[in-house]
Design a protein that fits this description.
single chain; Methanol Dehydrogenase, Chain A; Rossmann fold; 8-stranded mixed beta sheet; 3 domains; alpha+beta; globular; 5-stranded antiparallel beta sheet; 45 strands; 748 residues; disordered N terminus
Length: 748
């Protein structure tokens, strides 16, 4: 063998060995990603939830002591000094056996002397809001259960009166008040039943307005104001359970679909000792107006109520004082498309002013409004959106908020003077590009700060304000970051794509062994509805997209117009009355533009998938642009917009009666005849949110049109399709197998 031949042979051996090592590493990485993606395990573990104490200098956590018993402790924000606030012994209901309350949540009285303990909880739709409540008197060390004699796990939203002498709660759609001294309770509403709901809400208010806790104590503790919903006349929906017994059972609940009759909702107040309810004479049909927010002005008996008309074009503020006939229209906020509720109203200068969020100048900004509603001044000013208010320090005169004027995929902390000229100051470290979030203390002197981006595991530290300087690390995720980096996988690359003249944000993840000289199939992850967004420069915690990329796909997400991103009112609301049409157009034009920019994208192998609203957009894309989208997986989708609820669908589309053309254009079922590619439909039969009815109606239409498709139904799984042993694994494996069969992976 010549020297040249020997060198060539050695080089060949080296290449083969390194190739084998690379292939083995790729296989190992893929297996790890698969195990985490299939198991829906967040990778890596991180985070630390805290509750701040009123002094703004300490926070509370529930921890286990050396004997594996829960106790409530406090930490000093300044130096992390730990103090046991409530020892495990005080949480025991049977000291002889050591049986302890299993805490789901807790809350303190204003004087911090008593604690409400929430345990033995049950789910009501999305969240654990029904259970048992106990009161701990910290001075006496006494623990007693509220509502003895009422059904187990039936109490909801228990709250101390301002002087902590009483607790009010809801049970079986009635409101009760319990005297803590005598440990006796009384129902202060008695008409609650299957259709009359007092102190809580029906399905649609809970889902779309985030309304659950439906009563408030007055400032003097003598009255309770509450919502009442009359669901009679509303259409009721049935979900048939065929899997838990030999005969089916039926879940029957009120669900107003777009254009149908809503519950009649009103607000009244009653003495905490019981008696007749006084109903507020708020104008307007109770079934064609909404009352999504109601609070007492701090320390007073004056109510501050937000009322929306049914199309949600106007949010009108009313005020009323307990015991006085003084209902007054304070001011209103209007929009030709829709308005939002104000969830973070803060009162200033002894209740002389309050804060308000509005898009009236084309951007979402904070305003300062006088108590009489006659003066409205900008607190923040500029061509940018305020995303979230996170803290208000009246003492120093600043409000802290999240915004991102230059990059809609990122988030930063700013502050502005409450009584200033509207100028805003960046507080976050500008060198940390990505998303910043803050859990700020009530006094705005401290905040738990979390930073991450698409390739950086969340970094969590305690920061001091107003400087915003870090004083210590709260959670050290360096090991998790190292483990992630060692995988060697491609993270999200943020790019720009065009839909006509419109510039859109997008990201893509390339395959593990990416070769730019080859062409790869694409899987687009889409949402596309006005309620959320997908193109975010933030740590996702999930490995599903990376796993798909490791199989040999380029995974892409494109943020179509109308998505909930900080790009101004016109960006978000240009889709009013046209939900579904612009989104699918932007997705089609966007991915074709991406293919023009990057030759390694195979424009002949494009797949698309999405969940809920994303499932709807998947169908619209497959049916309306079959020449672009060849394979799709639609999960838990709305097939016909008339089948979804009043509050959400009408917010963006008006009613089907007023906008029949828009409903037809935006509903995938209208274009079922356009299906040409391979389509998989996935839905849970127990979905109380987007009903399985959507899947059945679409299937019926596809059969009528002679279209071949594939379908997997998950018995009695909800909108999340997560309940039951093996469900998540089966779902992910089903999706993977479908992609591999009908959208073959790998570069060509």
């Amino acid at each position: 063998m010549t020297t040249f031949q020997r060198a060539t042979f050695l080089l060949y051996i080296l290449i083969m060995c390194s190739g084998a090592a690379f292939a083995q590493k790729k296989t190992d990485t893929a297996k790890m990603l698969q195990s985490r993606a299939y198991g829906s395990i967040v990778y890596p573990s991180y985070g630390r939830h805290i509750e701040w104490m009123p002094d703004g200098e300490h926070y509370i956590q529930v921890e286990q002591n050396a004997h594996a018993k829960e106790e409530i402790v406090t930490y000093s924000a300044k130096d992390e000094r730990r103090t046991v606030l409530i020892p495990a012994e005080q949480l025991m209901i049977d000291k002889a056996s050591g049986e302890q309350l299993a805490l789901w949540d807790f809350s303190f009285s204003d004087d911090q002397e008593k604690v409400l303990l929430f345990t033995n909880t049950k789910k009501v739709w999305r969240y654990h809001t029904r259970g048992d409540y106990w009161v701990l008197d910290r001075k006496r060390g006494a623990l007693h259960q509220l509502g003895k004699g009422l059904p187990e796990s039936s109490l909801m939203f228990a709250k101390f009166s301002p002087d902590a002498s009483k607790v009010a709660y809801v049970s079986r759609n009635n409101i009760y008040v319990e005297d803590l001294k005598t440990q006796t309770y009384k129902a202060i509403t008695t008409d609650g039943n299957d259709t009359i709901v007092n102190g809580t809400f029906d399905w649609v208010y809970e889902e779309e307005f985030d309304c659950r806790d439906g009563f408030r104590w007055s400032g003097d503790g003598k009255y309770i104001a509450y919502w009442q919903s009359n669901t009679s006349g509303t259409g009721w929906f049935d979900i048939i359970n065929n899997v838990d017994s030999i005969y089916p059972t039926i879940q029957h609940f009120p669900y107003p679909k777009a254009g149908t009759t809503n519950s009649a909702v009103k607000i009244g107040y009653v003495s905490a000792d019981g008696g007749t309810t006084t109903w507020l004479p708020i104008p307007g049909d109770e079934r064609n107006n909404y009352l999504p927010r109601m609070e007492f002005v701090p320390g007073t008996n004056r109510l501050f109520i937000q009322q929306m008309d049914r199309p949600q074009h106007t949010n009108r503020v009313w005020t009323a004082t307990i015991g006085q006939n003084d209902l007054k229209s304070l001011f209103k906020d209007s929009d030709k498309a829709w308005v939002e509720t104000n969830d973070n109203v803060k009162w200033l200068k002894g209740n002389k002013f309050f804060t308000w969020m509005s898009e009236r100048d084309g951007w979402r900004h904070l305003y300062r409004v006088s108590a009489d509603g006659k003066q409205m001044s900008l607190i923040t000013k500029g061509d940018f959106d305020v995303i979230q208010q996170v803290g208000l320090d009246e003492k120093s005169g600043y409000v802290y908020f999240i915004a991102s004027p230059d990059n809609a995929t990122q988030r930063y902390l700013y502050r502005a003077k409450l009584f200033g000229n509207g100028q805003c100051e960046l507080v976050s470290d500008a060198s940390q590009k990505g998303q910043h979030s803050y859990n700020m203390s009530p006094t705005c002197t401290w905040a738990v700060h979390t930073f991450s981006n698409a390739h950086t595991v969340p970094q969590i530290d305690m920061q001091s304000f107003p400087s915003g300087k870090s004083v210590r690390t709260m959670v050290d995720n360096s090991k998790a970051q190292q483990e992630f980096d060692e995988l060697g996988i491609h993270t999200k690359e943020f790019v720009k794509v065009k839909s006509g003249d419109l510039m859109l944000d997008a990201w893509m993840i390339k395959p593990y062994d990416f070769d730019a000289s080859k062409k790869y199939p694409v899987i687009i992850d889409v949402y596309g509805e006005p309620a959320n967004s997908t193109v975010q420069d933030v740590w996702s915690g999930s490995t599903w997209h990376q796993y798909l990329a490791s199989l040999g796909y380029i995974v892409v997400s494109i943020e179509n117009r109308g998505a909930a991103v900080p790009r101004g009112r016109e960006w978000r609301k240009c889709i009013y009355g046209e939900v579904g049409t612009f989104a699918s157009q932007d997705q089609a034009q966007g991915i074709l533009d991406l293919a023009r920019q990057y030759p390694f994208i195979d424009a002949e192998r494009i797949g698309i998938t999405g969940w809920s609203g994303g499932g709807s957009q998947t169908l619209n894309c497959m049916f309306r642009y079959p020449e672009v989208f060849k394979t799709g997986i639609a999960v838990a989708f709305v097939a016909d917009q008339r089948l979804y609820d009043t509050i959400y669908q009408e917010r963006y589309m008006n009613t089907p009666q007023n906008n029949p053309e828009g409903y037809e254009k935006g509903s995938p079922i209208s274009y079922a005849d356009g299906l040409e590619g391979h389509l998989l439909l996935i839905h849970g039969t127990g979905d109380d949110n987007v009903h399985y009815q959507n899947c059945e109606m679409l299937v019926n239409k596809l059969i009528e049109k002679g279209k071949i498709f594939y379908q997997v139904s998950y018995p009695m799984r909800s909108h999340s399709i997560s309940e039951g042993a093996g469900t998540t694994h089966h779902l992910r494996k089903t999706m993977e197998d479908f992609w591999l069969k009908y959208l073959p992976a790998g570069g060509r």
